[in-house]
Amino acid sequence: MRIVTAIFSMWICVLQAQETVIQAGYLVDPRDGTIQENRTIVVSGTRIIAIGESIETPESARFVDLSNSYVFPGLIDSHTHICNTVRGRDAGRYFYTGINASTAERAYACTAVRTAVNRREIVGPTIMNAGRIIAPFGAQYRLQPERRNLAEPDYFIADTRDEMLKAIRENIHFGARVLKVIVDDQSYVYSEEDLRFMRGEAEKAGFKLAAHAGTESGILNAANARVHLIEHVTNASEEGFRVMIENDVAAVFTNLPREYSTGPEELVERSYRRRNEQLKKAYDMGVKIVFGSDVMENKLGDRGESAMLVVNSYAEAGLTGHAILKSMTSDSAELLGIDNLAGHLAPNMWADIVATSINPLDDIGALHEIDFVMKWGMIVNP
């Protein structure tokens, strides 16, 4: 979905508008994959206030006819980089970002965008941003001695327990909504005890902790520490998956399409297939999977279009339409702690509603053909 910008007065009009009545031909519940036919959805302001078969509605209400459409909640990308300025020029060292981007862009842009959306100054997605990523010295960089501070402010370098606690509290204070740590991008890694400590401190404040982990040992450390989410789990062993299941740790497989990769075609294809094989193994074993794209640039169209290409990867890996839709709605909402507001359609939930003429449970390609989008009660497409 495209992020549609609008002036503040547009939001004022929405909030002062009369109720909206949506006639949904097929109401999809992604939690259990069921469909209810001929349901009426009543929206007032930013919330759904009623759903039923026969509801009395005021004649003055705005009517939206989706009687031939499959209607379901707005989609969630649980791993993306909305404000990232990387353009693929730095071979993973991020030096171009560190040198060219402003401090505001690198550290606090997502908070600023989220604030503008929440104040209804612009129309955009609901953002649950992670603030500055907490990491051991070096973070995801290969620093030079004369540029030892280049990793900041993108990352909050934290090597001791005091530094970890300070990083968590400062992130929360300055507007993060979830917390993220880098486990194993250096030869030294966060231990299970480090991660358990940070998870505990995050939970005390009511926050979820996500862990970027790419090695078998790093994934095991994060899973044993019971973090809430592990990102990039391609190198997980079966033991790692089992521990994730036992400890109710969710996984984000950021299976970017082949077009995002560079290098010899044979190596790109081999890497892509291996990522999908791991995704299918985790799915078959019963790992809780939430959707994440890891999109950080407009390489294949806008961000929404690029993210939707990852849906194709999930489908090629063998996940069902229901499993993919659930990973993008109810499971992601539960992970983020907003399942009382998003992830399925019910009274008092946000009026984040999308529709398509194709049943997404049968054909997940339907997500490429969305023709109605409502965000917080405002129709942004068509």
**First-last Cα distance:** 11 Å
What structural class do the secondary elements suggest? alpha/beta
Instruction: Indicate the mean pLDDT.
Output: 89
The named CATH superfamily of the largest domain: Metal-dependent hydrolases
CATH top-level class of the largest domain:
Alpha Beta
Q: How is this structure best described in words?
A:
With 382 residues, the protein is α/β, with parallel strands linked by helices. It has two domains: 8-74 and 343-381, Roll (Urease, subunit C, domain 1); 95-336, Metal-dependent hydrolases (TIM Barrel, Alpha-Beta Barrel), CATH 3.20.20. It is built from eleven helices and 13 strands. It has helices spanning 8-16, 95-100, 103-118, 161-173, 192-204, 216-224, 238-246, 265-285, 303-316, 321-327, 330-336; strands spanning 20-29, 34-44, 47-52, 62-73, 133-135, 155-157, 179-182, 209-212, 229-231, 250-252, 353-356, 372-375, 378-381. The strands form three sheets. The protein has a seven-stranded mixed sheet. The chain has a four-stranded parallel sheet with strand order 7-8-9-10. The protein has a two-stranded parallel sheet with strand order 5-6. Helix 4 (161-173) packs parallel to helix 5, helix 5 packs across helix 6 and helix 6 packs parallel to helix 7. It is globular. The relative contact order is 0.16. Residues 1-16 have low confidence and may be disordered.
